[in-house]
Amino acid sequence: MATNGTEFESVRTVSVVRHYKLGRSLIPAVDGVSLAAGRGEFIALLGASGSGKSTLLNLIAGLDRPDSGAIVVEGADLATMTSEQLAQYRRHTVGMVFQSFNLVPTMTLYENVELPMRFAEVKRKERRARVVEALERVGLSDRMKHRPSEMSGGEQQRAALARALANRPKLLLADEPTGNLDSKTGTEIMDLIRELNRTLEMTVIMVTHERPLAERYANRLVFLGDGKLVGELENTKLEKIGAAR
Amino acid sequence: MRAYDLIELAGRNLREAGLRNSLTTLGIGVGVASLVAMLSLGIGLQKLATRQLGRSGLFDTVVVTSRQDSRGPRFAQAAPVTAQAKPLDDVARHSFEQMPNVVEVYPNFSAVGDVRLETDKTGNHFTVVGTLPQSARTSEAFDDVQGSFFSSGVAEEAIILGDFGRDLLNLPREPRGTDVKLTKDQADQLLGKYVVLRYHRREAGESAPLAGKTTKKGQADPDDVDSPDDIKAEDAQSFNLVPKQLKLKIVGIVSSEPNRGLRQGRTPVFLPLALAESLDMVQAGELWSTLRPSESKTYIALIVRVGKSKAVSQVEDEIRKQGFSTFSILDASKGITRFFTFLDLFLGIFGSLALAVASLGIVNTLVMAILERRREIGIMKALGASDGDVKRIFFFEAGAMGILGGALGAGLGWTIGRVINFATNIYLQRQDIKPENFWVVPVWLVAAALGFSVFVSMFAGLYPASRAARLDPVQALRHD
């Protein structure tokens, strides 16, 4: 079970605000959210569509900047970073998986997993070993030469997970990772994420709107509504379910 | 991102949209080719013109005359008044020879003599006799010489004009001044045959039958011109004109005057320069020198040949500073250089238009690529690509199209030039004109075209690259 003390803190958001302009009016997508995640914790962000959970995830991912507030990940405040520093942060600290997998369709599986290492300037010799290691971890080492279009949805999401692991990040951000999968493959992916969370001690923040899924895998459920934090729930059933499996 | 990753990523992007990128590259190629072709034509024409003019001897010669008299061309530019007038003698000739860029200095030689075929006892061909320096061998008049050039500078040989050849053969005259090329049959009747040159040799002395007595020019009182008693003995210069004759072998027949240059009048017979100088022939303008005493032999005019036409004005200035009058067709050649600069500029602008259109093609292709690769750019950013990385990838793609297009275009331009040279030369040969290369593609032009193409392409890539870099990853990745 993950520890929740500040010295083991992975992510902390402090009164984060992010507005969007829609015509003349400002839509507050995230409106003063303060949240903390300990190292190795598995957090599920729950909420209806438009609740701001994806926006919050993008802010934590360093793909977007808050209008106010602070986002501290592994001791560094994203709000004060230059765009080059943010890129570095995305390269080394965060791994992301998306609902629509977002593999580059023109690249083979190998090339897709290699891509983040190109930006991180990993030496060529080392890359191969890391790609193989990541693909073995998700069970796709025999599909390296295949393009995404030649793979099933589950395989694609596993490939995306392998890619997210390539630069050995401390934080895994997942945006509805099972949203495009049937329940069986969805479960497989979730099992894989939980395994990574446990064996690699990666902090996982997952956006979902399926409460049962969150209850089954996350050790803490965070509820968002209209850009505000509306509730937090420590998942007590988790150990039982985990033990039952 | 490391360079090889950049190259690989850009390379695979270029391959992915192969057809579109090939067409864009081809567009640049055509643009560069048109630029290369236009400029090659300009350069080729300029080279052709300067070659022709250079060989005509007009633009690289300076005619030097003494300020002491006015024997030279009337339009000669006088030396600055401050300079001391000096005699145009061997000292002056030697000093001109020592000047930088001066290739050779030779006298403008023009004598009068009687030239007839050895076998011809009746004909009387009183004519002007000129000389040719050995360098005249490259003159364009010798492009279609019948026979050959002098075997040496002192050989007792003659080169004659075609129409004078007709005179020698007692054929009807052509209108004066027309270039006549003899038939092979007529030429064979003259080449290798001997002519006899009768001339007058100038010898110092007082008792010869044709002795002339003169006084210093301007010293004679106008009132006393008729009084021979006023001639002071120490001022008098006298020489004898001794009739001589010399057998010369006709070695060459040309249809136009070689080294026409700034020579006045028509000269139909030429001797080797050194031979003529050794003969001490009385020259056409010699009367002037009989009116003025001089310690040594002076020249009527010296022709100074300059290696580079650019150096003509500098050489002219130096000679004028020494106290001589000079003349050259420098101003005319300046005009010609200016004309070709403008021609190159216009051809360059027209050539660049195609390249400008092609560069719009690059902008279009890359902007399309951004729209198409929107999600991919978002993915790359999410995986840690910085704005700079994305920009560099697009920039590199533009540059690569520029290099490929430039190389293609330079090759194409060169080939077009080759083909046109080939075709025009076939045409010229049919017209019995010596083939010329209108199209010259120098290495620097190829390199410059390549560089320009890369520059234009990269410039065209600036906007798409920065637009791609600015793309918001959140927007790009939003699933729809």
Could you walk me through the main structural features you see in this protein, from its secondary elements to its overall organization?
The complex is a heterodimer of chains A (245) and B (480). With 245 residues, chain A is α/β, with parallel strands linked by helices. Chain A has 2 domains: 6-93 and 169-244, Rossmann fold (3-Layer(aba) Sandwich); 104-168, no CATH class. Chain A has helices spanning 53-61, 83-92, 109-119, 124-137, 153-165, 183-199, 211-217, 237-244; strands at 9-22, 25-38, 42-46, 68-73, 76-77, 94-97, 171-175, 203-208, 220-225, 228-234. In chain A, helix 4 (124-137) packs across helix 5 and helix 5 runs parallel beside helix 6. Mean pLDDT of chain A is 89; it is low at 1-5 and 240-245. By secondary structure, chain B is of the alpha+beta class. Chain B folds into 2 domains: 3-54 and 336-477, no CATH class; 109-298, no CATH class. Chain B contains 13 helices and 11 strands. A 6-stranded mixed beta barrel of chain B has the order 3-4-9-6-8-7. In chain B, strand 3 and strand 4 (126-132) form a beta hairpin. In chain B, helix 9 (330-372) packs parallel to helix 12. The longest helix of chain B is centred in the last third of the chain and has 44 residues, at 387-430. Chain B starts with a helix and ends with a helix. Residues 207-222 and 231-236 of chain B have low confidence and may be disordered. The chains are: A alpha/beta (245), B alpha+beta (480).
Topology:
The complex is a heterodimer of chains A (245) and B (480).
Chain A: E1 9-22, E2 25-38, E3 42-46, H1 53-61, E4 68-73, E5 76-77, H2 83-92, E6 94-97, H3 109-119, H4 124-137, H5 153-165, E7 171-175, H6 183-199, E8 203-208, H7 211-217, E9 220-225, E10 228-234, H8 237-244
Parallel strand pairs in A: 3-8, 3-9, 6-7, 7-8
Antiparallel strand pairs in A: 1-2, 1-4, 4-5, 9-10
Chain B: H1 3-16, H2 18-56, E1 61-66, H3 90-97, E2 102-107, E3 110-117, E4 126-132, E5 146-147, E6 157-161, H4 162-168, H5 184-190, E7 194-204, E8 239-254, E9 269-272, H6 273-279, H7 286-290, E10 302-306, H8 312-321, E11 324-327, H9 330-372, H10 374-382, H11 387-430, H12 443-470, H13 473-477
Parallel strand pairs in B: 4-9, 6-8
Antiparallel strand pairs in B: 1-10, 1-11, 2-10, 3-4, 3-7, 5-8, 6-9, 7-8
Helix pairs in contact in B: 1-11, 2-9, 2-11, 2-12, 9-10, 9-12, 11-12
